[in-house]
Amino acid sequence: MNLTVEMEHYITTGRCPYCRVAILSSNYLSQNFGALQFAPAMAYGNFASASAILAPVGARVKVTQSPSRSMQCLSCNGTWFFSARVVGIASSPPPKIIGLADLQLGSLSRQAPSPSRQLPRKVDLSGSALVGVTGQSKVERFLFEQRKKYSNNSGSTVTREMSVAHSIRLTVTIESSKLQSRNAQGGVTLAGFATIQGQVQRQLSERYSMTLESTSSVSEKTSVTLKRYMTVEHVIQWKVVTWMGSALLGKPKSGARQAIAQVPYEVQIGLTYDDDVIDVIDVKGVRGKKKRS
């Protein structure tokens, strides 16, 4: 199907080809890109379905079936047709308000400039750095559960020593697949992040006072009193304390330190655990519960 330039502009950018107001959200565009490309041709067989795709509920645009399939922006009243093969009818840009300057210059033209398909703007992140963080929160992520049994097979009360020990390597994780522009209008392609990822990881580790590839260890001893012929189980749940949020990236040399992109991150800062001592033979519930960090 030979689409008009105006129609191609609308289904590609989600904006009015005349006043450039955003009609479709960037999320709607990305989720329905294929359907939007097919909808103009679908309108000649299933107008209702095509209309629902091109003009979803809440969008400031309307679709007209007769005399020829067209669309109208409800912000500027500009009208454009689906097909470039419509004979004898032309797309209608919004009316121009003529002022004194127009009359003096003798310019009464209402012809709007033909819109061109807008290509995504490319932003190179090379040379960028961490300029801040947003949405940060501190959580404890479960690692694994450890169980140890201690028994007293004698006829008298005894005390047993219990050990709690583990070590992990702390990491800084950046979800590069979720890198996105801070430009609210979208239409931006980001490049060059791989060249600064290592630097951003180091900056994040310094922000939370930890060293990349450092370790966190716990080594403690405690004791439990066992009655005669008694067995208990020591249950240890290991967790890692983690800061998470979104790293803001910008050009520090620009002076303004304005963020141009953001990416989710997680910084592990330490090891912790919860533990219970449970009577195995005659279960009476939890004998002791404590949390250390």
Query: How many discrete structural domains?
Result: 2
**Low-confidence sequence ranges:** 86-90, 96-119, 282-293
Binned, the helix content reads 10-25%
DSSP summary, beta strand count: 13
Number of helices: 6
Order of helices and strands: HHHHEEEHEEEEEEHEEEE
Structural class: alpha+beta
Mean pLDDT: 81
| Oligomerization | single chain
Characterization of the model:
The protein has two domains: 5-115, no CATH class; 122-292. It is built from six helices and 13 strands. It has helices spanning 5-13, 26-31, 33-42, 47-54, 100-105, 197-207; strands spanning 61-64, 70-73, 79-81, 121-124, 129-152, 158-169, 172-174, 180-181, 188-191, 215-226, 230-250, 259-279, 286-292. The strands form four sheets. Strands 5, 7, 8, 11, 12 and 13 form a six-stranded antiparallel β-sheet that branches. It has a three-stranded antiparallel β-sheet with strand order 1-2-3, with no helix packed on it. A hairpin with a 5-residue loop joins strand 2 and strand 3.
